[in-house]
Amino acid sequence: MSIPQAIARRAALPELATGQTTAFRLLDGAGDGWPGVEIDTYDRHWVVQTREVPFPEVLRRTLPEGCLSVWWKRLDQQDKQAPQCVLGQPPAGPFTVQELGLNYEIDLTAGYSQGLFLDQRPQRARMMERIVPGQRVLNLFAYTCAFSVAAASRGAITTSVDLSRPYLEWGKRNFALNDLAPDAHFFCRGDSFEWLRRFAKKGRTWDGIVVDPPSFSRNADGKVFRVEHDFPELVALCLAVLAPGGWLLSSTNHRGLTPARFRGLVEAGASLSQRPVTQLQPGNMPPDFTDEPYLKTLWLASLPGSSR
Ligand SMILES: C[S@@+](CC[C@H](N)C(=O)[O-])C[C@H]1O[C@@H](n2cnc3c(N)ncnc32)[C@H](O)[C@@H]1O
User: Fold this and answer.
1) Band of pLDDT at residue 275, cut at 50, 70 and 90
2) What spacing in Å lies between the alpha carbon of 143 and ligand 1's midpoint?
3) pLDDT tens digits, 165-220
4) What is the CATH number of the domain that holds 57?
5) CB 3.0 to 4.6 Å from 236: which of 156, 229, 273, 294, for a disulfide?
6) pTM to 2 decimals?
7) Residue 302's pLDDT is what?
8) Residue 232 has pLDDT above 70, yes or no
9) Any residues with CB less than 8 A from the CB of 278 and at least 6 apart, and which?
10) Which ligand 1 atom is at minimum distance from the Cα of 145?
11) Residues 6+ apart with CB under 8 A from 169
């Protein structure tokens, strides 16, 4: 499939035709006949990601129609570098994109990630549908707080936890970009595990929790987190602070885990916590992501009236 054909395929998707989402995947590897090549558009600035294949020469020569700049990000290198601009006029600095009608700040020069994980759009949409104004939502490993902003836009009071202060500041800017007052929400810098234990001790609970950690991380004390080893404990700690009748969205993009193995880890966490849970429903990937469905997502609900 040619790049214009892949773009036409996205243009035909009803959820992208509304114009409410300006950041999405334009071309997705083998799913569009280009193994090892992905192109994401951030409001007409294209990030071309390659994994063990050369940069497509066709994108070095002339700016494709409707594209302002082309960037190259390599997914196959150990030192995770920010994308490099290879063609066109780079934006003057951070700029705003829309997802589901909400605004998010993107910075193509900030580092390996651009500020918004485009593969979680269906989960943000589904979460927004289930939120009742006034509900309390906890977003762990919050990064730039996209899930928090989406929840707050529907009237939730959010708490965002992340190791990185700069990312939480970026998150506050995302709130402001949507006319949501950051002061009406909570931002906790530090390790998600430690905060969860602290919240449990204080008897705090949430009506909804999002837990979407990186596959691997190390906290300030050098303590290592690995999804395949630590997810059950993380789920159990989440369930300890989930209000009866509340929901938990658990997710990983770890390509080495099968959906069945991921489900096993989540179920192990539920039995560790001894909280009765129902509805282990899988989430889905956006229709513009046509390659391998690497993202694993499960929605859990705690039984109304259940407590430890
Ligand atoms: C892959 S991103 C998470 C994506 C996020 N859930 C989203 O949908 O936008 C990883 C984030 O986890 C944070 N992080 C890594 N280890 C952490 C930990 N132990 N506690 C809290 N945050 C952590 C990083 O700082 C980074 O912002």
Assistant:
1) confident
2) 5
3) 999 999 999 999 999 999 999 999 999 999 999 999 999 999 999 999 999 988 88
4) 3.30.750.80
5) 273
6) 0.96
7) 87
8) yes
9) 300, 301, 302, 303
10) 9
11) none
SS3 153: helix
Residue 306 has pLDDT above 70, yes or no: no
Give the number of other Cβ atoms within 10 Å of residue 59's Cβ.
20
Query: Beta strands 242-252 and 186-189: pairing type?
Result: unpaired
Q: Which domain does 159 fall in, by range?
A: 118-302
Asked if 127 and 86 sit in the same domain, the reply is: no
The verdict on residue 113 lying in a domain is no
Q: Pick from 218, 223, 147, 219: which is nearest to 190 by CA?
A: 219
Segments of 52-193 assigned E as strands: 69-74, 84-88, 95-99, 102-106, 136-140, 157-162, 186-189
Helices (H), the chain: 3-11, 14-17, 58-61, 121-130, 146-153, 165-177, 192-201, 227-240, 259-273
Average pLDDT, the chain: 95
Residue 106 domain-assigned (yes or no): no
The set of protein residues with a Cβ atom below 6 angstroms from ligand 1 is 117, 120, 141, 143, 146-147, 161-164, 167, 191-192, 212, 214, 217, 219, 225
Q: Based on the domain organization, do 7 and 85 belong to the same domain?
A: yes
Ligand 1 pocket, mutate which of 104, 107, 141, 248 (most atoms under 8 A from CB) = 141
Ligand 1 atom closest to Cα of residue 120: 8
Residues in the chain: 308
pLDDT one-digit tens code per residue, 95-153: 999 999 999 999 999 999 999 999 999 999 999 999 999 999 999 999 999 999 999 99
- Nearest residue (CA) to ligand 1, atom 27: 143
